[in-house]
Amino acid sequence: MKTSPSRTWASSLPRWFAMAGLTIVVLGPLYWVTMSAFKNREEIIRREPTLFPETPTLDNFRRLFTATDYPTYLANSASVAVATMVVTIIVSMAAAYALYRLRVPGSGRLAGIILLSYMIPGTLLIVPLYGTLFRLGLIDTHLGLVLVNVAFTAPFCTWLLRGFLLSIPDDLDAAAALDGAGPIRTMTQVVFPLLAPGVATVAVFSFVYAWKEFVFASQFVLSDSLDTLPIGLKAIIGQYTVDWGLVMAGAVFTLLPTVLLFAVVGRFFVGGLMSGANK
């Protein structure tokens, strides 16, 4: 029995309404921030808001890069995020291969403990982490911030790679062993080249985590010259007045790297999350 086109269209109507509502909720604030960055101050704070800039201007962006320390914050965030991403990829790939591929004794229980550590709220660990970094001389350094970021990204990324590793046939390991390859050579030359989607997923997650991280950066970095973007944007906001043009322009440039990265490898990220959940 065939369903009439009008009935099919009517049945899909709630789904389209839900998708439209979700799109407005997610993209609406991004659109408002982006449009406000091109408005002058009078138009931003006007009682009757405008959807499009009446007189588009780049003055907010010019003042952002010439009158504030935003370029320094941008460079600091880029170095911390890239270092966190690289170290997380190395650590999580090595840990995932040992836990889910070599299957050493006790690896199942250890994998559960590692994933459980990811669920501990970071704010509970600020005091012990501060003491540890202080004894190591890593307070007020980007290296200390990178190590803390990796400690919170590596457990989840290790679990994330589980689905990708389980999808690679074990026969490849046996074939590599017959050719005389040891575990390290099998890992680097046989298994890892097949993990490109998993590596892309880990890269996106760790980069975005470090890029937007605020709590640890505000506690473990003391010098203004070492502040990252989330801390720097807070500094742009004055004590008594707020220059909304600068704030909106800073928010746009802060969002831009993560949006571009997700546009390039975002499909791997969604596939990686689904793969990790299904395996």
From TrEMBL:
InterPro entries: BP-dep_ABC_trans_perm, MetI-like, MetI-like_sf
Transmembrane stretches, start-end: 12-32, 78-100, 112-131, 143-161, 190-211, 244-270
Chief place where the protein resides: membrane
Alphabetically ordered keywords of this record: Cell membrane, Membrane, Transmembrane, Transmembrane helix, Transport
GO biological process, one term: transmembrane transport
Compartments in which it is found: Cell membrane
UniProt-listed CDD domains: TM_PBP2
Domain ABC transmembrane type-1: 74-265
One of the record's GO cellular component terms: plasma membrane
Membrane topology designation: Multi-pass membrane protein
Family membership: Belongs to the binding-protein-dependent transport system permease family.
Descriptive protein name: CUT1 ABC transporter permease
Gene source species: Pontimonas salivibrio
